[in-house]
Design goal:
The structure is a homodimer of 416-residue chains. Chain A has 416 residues and is an alpha+beta fold. Chain A folds into two domains: 309 residues, Bira Bifunctional Protein, Domain 2 (BirA Bifunctional Protein, domain 2, 2-Layer Sandwich), CATH 3.30.930.10; 92 residues, Anticodon-binding domain (Rossmann fold, 3-Layer(aba) Sandwich), CATH 3.40.50. Chain A contains twelve helices and 23 strands. In chain A, the strands form six sheets. The first copy, chain A, has a five-stranded mixed barrel with strand order 9-10-13-11-12. The first copy, chain A, has a five-stranded mixed beta sheet with strand order 20-19-21-22-23, sandwiched between helices. In chain A, helix 1 packs across helix 8, helix 2 runs antiparallel to helix 5 and helix 2 packs across helix 8. The two termini of chain A are 18 Å apart. The interface between A and B is large, with 52 and 52 residues.
């Protein structure tokens, strides 16, 4: 992509009420635009990052036989009344409105209810199970405060998966598979090292739910990490009894602020009983379906990445989810042909490498360098009279300070 | 994909209030699920079709330098008041709700206002123009009645593009390019022959807007077609004066029911003036930006396809947007090895051909054939003792009645 064609140029001014670091950087660098507190639009740069995160999540969910679907934002009152989650006293994040005929409707903040209701159409016998479905849904939540940028929004993208299993044992097996798939996902996104399987409070059916918490100063949770065992305990269940149960020793634990990037939960048969979701088992018995739910905050993960990977000059995207792999800075001069940068751009594109080319005229090199640092593409490549004189292009990684001169072929090999 | 793994099996019962043919067929065949009137969820099959339509639209919008973004559903009252479109008396499809502090918010039924407001951040000089942006947005519209299935929903996916140009001439040039891109898009989707560039009522700036109307009995519009000239006139502007102006003769026109699949519109400088969106031109003069808006109903297009391409047995998807290219019906028998269908399935997949394999046990051939017709994949391939005896597989196109025996290699060549 040519930078001159990109409307969302870097900007200096950010909204006065924007206190969150991730949103400040993303707005400045031109990835997002603040519509209102907790609701952000995504520019072509922002979409590229979001889609990369989504694609990694999609691949990992498909790998455990998840099937992608998409539910609706609009929600029916009667359905949510069945599980006692319509009342604002019970669920305080509903946005509600009404149809022309006065029928109340809600906007989806979660989707266990409608998906499970839908499954009543398709689940009759044990032969119809298991079913694993997921969606990338724009959730709407009427949060009292929304001050964490894209880490906690009133409107945000979540991957939510639901499993419908024949028994607790079958559920447990899939639940464990999902834990592995989640760890792999966070690894691929670039936060694997700092993301911990975390014991948190459970529900009617299980003592614990499991969260995936990423060490992050801007996070809203507090966890106790055992770095060696690679697990954590959310402070909400941090008792001597729990530690003993998990075989953890207080002296090995580290108290840190964290952001929840994923959460998995066993509903057992509770929701199925409320919604009347039963199947006929092998013996002809009517049996409630066992339900699990598995979330990953897609926009939140993007916010966490920015919080974790930035310096005073801007964002430092991990390679796997960077909007581009290479950012070409063109510096014109007397001995540089008109077409040199273009040639490089096209050569990299032809090798399947994603490139942002800062082709702007009348912009000083210093400004181009500052913008490259702010945007945070992993490789900055300068093509200038000086680099050509030295026999190539000047390559610098965003997270290193040393640049070096390389031949184009050498560089292509490096990033392929 | 194996049919046994797909939860959204064909069903016999459809919701009693579902009067629309497209929704009836899509529900029966397992592509959509009705959440409420005008709001449908999409199953793995439904998503596949939607994504194919979106991808064609995306490619054509990218080809005319459109850049993909995504705005928010949540809308600010103050913004829409500037253009006098907040009041329910002016716009009667708003869903509205409020934040915890009592601030009113709306849910996006259109996005000219927020996108243009955002552009004030990025447009200063003539050097920043033109800008072409588009999104695939889930629009929310509080329609009084919603009886056309996925052709007119309370919640639906639209591709909306906006152009920001320096002058009426520059605008006009892009507008014409978009017409070509739209015609190509509808051609690729499979409705090119029956889709007409249509003159419809304009606004403050232009006598006409342009619609893309597809001949369709279930449509809500009435148009007069000149099939030879490949243009149409919406009845809302059907006067002798207009016909003369367009050089059309009444006797050459055919009155038909149509569905609007696209609409393009010139706002001139009107909206920019209301929203204070100006740029500095080459002479240093403050000048309003010229705005165009260009919609394609993605879910509606899917509905139109079903309305146009079905018979008494089910849907007949055009090849380009079919969920799969091949539907394998496996019929077991004495002389058929266990692995024959699997071998065929894997061979086709390895050639990059999308396959649905009806691998169900204990289902009669007749039921499998009926389901294949209902789902509407372009090629049905039967592998059975009889077909193997005759030396291959039995291939039948969904829109033809004759089947023939082919060798696998022959078939692969045909569909590649």
């Amino acid at each position: 992509m040519k930078y001159s064609k990109l409307y969302s140029k870097t900007i200096k001014e950010i909204p006065a009420d924007e206190v969150s670091k991730n949103a400040q950087l993303l707005i400045k660098a031109g990835f997002v635009y603040k519509e209102m507190a907790g609701a952000y639009a995504y520019s072509p740069l922002g979409i590229k990052v979001l889609e990369k995160i989504k694609q990694i999540v999609r691949e990992e969910m498909n790998a455990i036989e998840g099937m992608e679907i998409i539910m609706t934002a609009l929600q029916r009152k009667e359905l949510w009344e069945k599980t006692n989650r319509w009342d604002d006293e019970k669920v305080d994040v509903w946005f509600k409105s009404e149809l022309k005929n006065g029928t109340e409707v809600g906007f989806g903040w979660s989707h266990e209810e409608p998906i499970s209701e839908m499954m009543k159409l398709y689940i009759n016998s044990y032969r119809d199970l298991p079913i694993y479905v997921y969606q990338f849904q724009t959730k709407l939540r009427n949060e009292l405060r929304a001050k964490s940028g894209i880490m906690r929004g009133r409107e945000f993208v979540m991957k939510d998966m639901y499993s419908y299993s024949i028994s607790s044992e079958a559920h447990e097996e899939f639940y464990k598979k999902t834990i592995e798939a989640y760890l792999k996902t966070f690894e691929r996104i670039g936060i694997g090292e700092d993301t911990f399987l975390t014991f948190a409070s459970g529900g009617a059916f299980t003592q614990f739910s499991h969260e995936f918490q990423t060490v992050c100063e801007a996070g809203e949770d507090v966890c106790y990490l055992d770095r060696e065992k690679k697990i954590a305990v959310n402070e909400e269940v941090f008792t001597d009894e729990v530690l003993e149960q998990l075989g953890l020793k207080k002296e090995n634990l580290e108290k840190v602020k964290t952001a929840e990037v994923g959460n998995i939960f066993n509903f057992g048969s509770a929701k199925s009983e409320e919604l009347d979701l039963y199947f006929t088992d092998k013996n002809g018995e009517k049996t409630p379906v066992i339900l699990g739910s598995y979330g990953i905050g897609i926009t939140r993960a993007m916010g966490v990445l920015v919080e974790k990977f930035h310096d005073e000059r801007g964002i430092i995207w991990p390679v796997n989810i960077a909007p581009f792999t290479v950012h070409i800075v063109e510096i014109k001069g007397q001995n540089i042909g008109e077409g040199e940068a273009q040639k490089l751009y096209e050569e990299l594109l032809s090798k399947g490498i994603e490139v942002l080319w800062d082709d702007r005229e009348d912009v000083r090199p210093g400004e181009k360098f500052a913008d490259a640092d702010l945007i945070g593409v992993p490789y900055r490549v300068v093509i200038s009279p000086k680099s050509l004189e030295q026999g190539g292009i000047e390559v610098k990684k965003r997270n290193e300070s040393e640049a070096k001169i390389m031949k184009v072929e050498e560089f292509v090999e490096l990033v392929s």
